[in-house]
């Protein structure tokens, strides 16, 4: 480990359950020094939950401000549009030899087909430059253009994402197949590993963000990718187990 500095390139959750709030909390729990480049702000308006991308020049200035920091890992969260994604990719390409975790957030945009299609193509460009991607089921379907209804479908989607350039893949299945079990599938290009924990009827807002930032933290701490994924799954489970009752309960996806 060259440093304890770790970066989150992610959005702000107005309710402070997910996004950069979850990332920084996870980094702190793991004894790491977290930095953030903010991609977007959020708010609840008459239209519902809205995402407001930061100005492209401001985002670029944020990344330029961090260029000399000796980061040991980077976690990528919500990239709200192609402009922000392109700036982030340029930054990632300059980071040599450190783990990068991509949480390819697409769900909040699934009703805007053209925007999702463009962002999907942009996110796929990240695959060769990141250590692992962590899509949920909906995101895996959007990325692969494949319907996922069974465990075998999840495995096939993971293989497809690997062929598309992802080195390692975790598809977060949540409790879609069994209401009492949260099942994720890890694939490293050769072997599958099932990550199966009981579903807890407690506040799990931000679980997906926490999962990805926990993987990044464990990689900084010297774990292998497979070990990091296993540790992150346990970390999220225990975080939900000890969570409070505030916030909106959601399936284990984001």
TrEMBL record:
GO terms for biological process: thiamine biosynthetic process. GO terms for cellular component: cytosol. Residues 13-247 form the Pyridoxamine kinase/Phosphomethylpyrimidine kinase domain. GO terms for molecular function: ATP binding; hydroxymethylpyrimidine kinase activity; metal ion binding; phosphomethylpyrimidine kinase activity; pyridoxal kinase activity. InterPro entries: HMP/HMP-P_kinase_dom, PM/HMP-P_kinase-1, Ribokinase-like. It catalyses: pyridoxal + ATP = pyridoxal 5'-phosphate + ADP + H(+). Pfam families: Phos_pyr_kin. Keywords: ATP-binding, Kinase, Magnesium, Metal-binding, Nucleotide-binding, Transferase. Its EC number is 2.7.1.35. It comes from the Bacteria. NCBIfam families: PRK12413.1. Belongs to the ThiD family. This is pyridoxal kinase. It comes from Streptococcus ratti.
